[in-house]
Amino acid sequence: MLDNKKIVFIGAGAMAEAMISGIVAAQTISPEHIFVTNRTNTSRLKQLQDQYGINGIPNGELQLDQVDVIILAMKPKDAATSLQSIRQIIKPHQLILSVLAGVTTSLIEHLVPAGQQVIRVMPNTSSKIGESATALAKGQHTTKQNLSWAKHLFECIGEVYVIREEQMDIFTGIAGSGPAYFYFLIEHMEKEAVKAGLTKGTVREILAQTLLGAAKMIQEQEESPAILRQNITSPNGTTAAGLLALREYCGGEAITQAVHQASNRSKEISRQLENSIQNMNIPTAIEI
């Protein structure tokens, strides 16, 4: 257990559940020390409570001062309103972890008491099975001790990488959104294999194993992805034909644009939140 800290998830969507599932499965934090709340969907809170043994607390009933770590997992557009509603009761010792895409640590620091410790986190949904690629970027007031604690927390759901704030948008484009690109690829390959007569269940196993094997080759071999690709591409062979089709139909450009567009959307969300804060006339961070 990590110091018997108590944590609360504000927001109960897919990402919150993926993280809760991974943390509970790894036995890093006792389920009785995990709380989750949202604005209105009490049936969702009960579902999470029944499934994971945690505490589902309806909005307004959570005693925020009983937790050590506040994890922001609401929709990014709701961040300003949510933080404004709790900023007066946040305590100096509480660590704020944000999994909100596009929401910078400086924006959060503007909305919470002055000097509050904030860490921006970008996991992906593979955290549900302990295989997330998670990035951490600390705010200006966060101690090395709390950054280390957060790193240990998220190591229970996969690999953790400490990066700079300005690198979070591109990380979001490749890792935060990355699993969806692979699912999209598998979806199309599965469709064609089923058309050719293989059963969907068999195809799914084949494709999952193929993707897993390729991932392990990248992890365990010294060669770059480009060299690994070249090693299995015989002149005029089947792989060469497939890769030619990818080039002819702009497969590489599609991947490039997917990464760029996801990264740009992360930046856009940040700009939109900044504008919404200005329109709400929220004062600067209060002193603690």
Overall CATH architecture of the largest domain: 3-Layer(aba) Sandwich
Return the structural class: alpha/beta
Instruction: Provide a count of the helices.
Output: 11
Low-confidence stretches are none
Helical proportion, percent range: 40-55%
Distance between the termini: 30 Å
- CATH superfamily membership of the largest domain, which one? NAD(P)-binding Rossmann-like Domain
The chain-level mean pLDDT equals: 92
Beta fraction of the residues? Answer: 5-15%
Give the total of beta strands. Answer: 8
Pfam families: F420_oxidored, P5CR_dimer
Domain Pyrroline-5-carboxylate reductase catalytic N-terminal: 6-102
Pathway: Amino-acid biosynthesis; L-proline biosynthesis; L-proline from L-glutamate 5-semialdehyde: step 1/1
Domain Pyrroline-5-carboxylate reductase dimerisation: 165-268
Question: What's this entry about, in short?
Answer:
With 288 residues, the chain is of the alpha/beta class. The chain is built from eleven helices and eight strands. NADP(+) binds at residues 10-15, 73-76.
Features of the shown structure:
288 residues; alpha/beta; Rossmann fold; ProC C-terminal domain-like fold; 2 domains; 8 strands; 51% helix; globular; pyrroline-5-carboxylate reductase activity; P5C_Rdtase_cat_N; EC 1.5.1.2
Topology:
Layout: E1 7-10, H1 14-26, E2 34-37, H2 42-52, E3 55-56, E4 69-72, H3 79-86, E5 95-98, H4 105-111, E6 117-122, E7 132-138, H5 144-155, E8 158-162, H6 168-176, H7 178-195, H8 200-220, H9 225-231, H10 238-248, H11 251-280
Parallel strand pairs: 1-2, 1-4, 2-3, 4-5, 5-6, 7-8
Antiparallel strand pairs: 6-7
Domain Pyrroline-5-carboxylate reductase catalytic N-terminal: 6-102
GO cellular component, one term: cytoplasm
Subcellular location: Cytoplasm
